[in-house]
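G., the chain you wanted modeled:
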Amino acid sequence: MSHSIGIIGAGNMARSLAGGLIANGYARENLRLSDPDASQRRGAESALGLTILADNRKLAAGCDVLVLAVKPQVLHDVAGEIAAAVQARKPLVVSVAAGIRIADLERWLGGSLAVVRVMPNTAALIGSGASGLFANSRVSAAQRDEAESILRAVGVTVWVPNESLIDTVTAVSGSGPAYFFLVMEALEKAAIKHGLDPQTARLLTLETAYGAAKMALEGQEEPAALRRRVTSPGGTTERAIQALERGQLEHIVDDAVAAAIERARELANVLGAK
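Predicted structure as tokens:
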């Protein structure tokens, strides 16, 4: 990437994106951030070694790729502030604000823009994120590559063919870390209940979760095949799996994903009504 990248926002996600780009060799002189909050600027400057602008309009007026890494609730106001600069410059706009549909963002920014909407997740903060992306019809192939390169700096990326699937991405990978944390929490509690001390219960739970994910990522088998391989007939794992199936775990997970999709759509309607 040789284009200048501007990131509005200097919070955790913005810092992660900027840090990932720098770690991957992106030239510091082509990367700028802005945030009107002085404390956020100081924190980002300390973390990244970059000068952070206070004026969002100044940043928007001088970049080829504009990343909007602000909270969804304030994006309407930020967009109104920078709309004139964005219309004059016509950058590629990459939004990581959850729940804001492209049509609403384009309207706030004045229209006729190349926009990529991204749903990252919290693991981007440690470089292990999983992000879903959708591009509107004005985004060129080169711009798609540019947007993907930015998000690949903090993890894996997948493109979805229509914007409504971003809601599913939100429910699966956006909210998904919390599902796994809940399972880890439950397993840890069960281990303590059945005699292990808390430190041992946590260590075994976390290392088991890490090992299972690593096997699934690095192997050639799908999760169902991996599960069958470690479930010996008549053994302890089979008995545990039977208990989980009696509790209808698959249906519980499906209900959770469906509930998250429904809420994502509700939020998009509320946030886009401005």
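The first strand starts at residue 5 and ends at 8.

Shout if anything looks off.
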